[in-house]
Design a protein that fits this description.
Helices cover about 15% and strands about 35% of the residues. It is α/β, with parallel strands linked by helices and about 170 residues long. The two termini are about 25 Å apart.
């Protein structure tokens, strides 16, 4: 897959232009990464307190894509920390959206990658290979599939089946 050159997209502009053609993820995400605005095609992960697949994926070429992790909203452990954020940044991932927690906030804020999560937790996750990759997710009642476009900024996260044309 080639690196995707993503135009600057604002979630409010995408919603105005696309109307009902896009979905807004109805969760109160917090920005943790060094980049607030990011967009790209999704790679999906479904897990519960296990970041083994996320660890593998951030070590592969991101090519401007966005990892969307459905951690079931668990606040029991962090699915992403400083080391994984650094790997994701180094490998060209545009961003990571986590329905769950992160940790090492003092480290991930320095990485030039978008990171959104529900909160933070100092406890690391387990590594039991119980995660599923490239599966359909339903986060906050919104369908997210690998390949759907994720557009994120300080206003929120918008999902589109294809790159919005503005």
């Amino acid at each position: 897959m080639a690196v995707i050159s993503t135009p600057k997209l604002a979630t409010a502009d995408v919603c105005d232009a696309e109307g009902e053609g896009v979905a807004v993820m109805p969760l109160a995400f917090i920005d943790y990464g060094g980049r607030r605005d990011f967009a790209g095609p999704a790679v999906t992960i479904k897990t519960l307190d296990d970041n083994s697949q996320l660890k593998k994926i951030v070590g592969t070429p991101g090519e401007g894509r966005v990892i969307v992790v459905d951690g079931a909203g668990s606040m029991r452990s962090a699915l992403l920390g400083g080391n994984l954020a650094a790997d994701a940044c180094k490998n060209g991932w545009a961003g990571i959206v986590i329905n769950g927690c992160v940790r090492d906030l003092h480290e991930i804020c320095r990485e030039d990658i978008g990171i959104k999560a529900l909160g933070s937790c100092p406890r690391k996750s387990v590594k039991a290979n119980r995660s599923e990759v490239d599966v359909d997710l339903a986060i906050g009642g919104i369908l997210v599939r690998s390949g759907y476009w994720i557009i994120a900024d300080s206003d929120g996260v918008v999902i589109s089946k294809e790159l919005p044309s503005l």
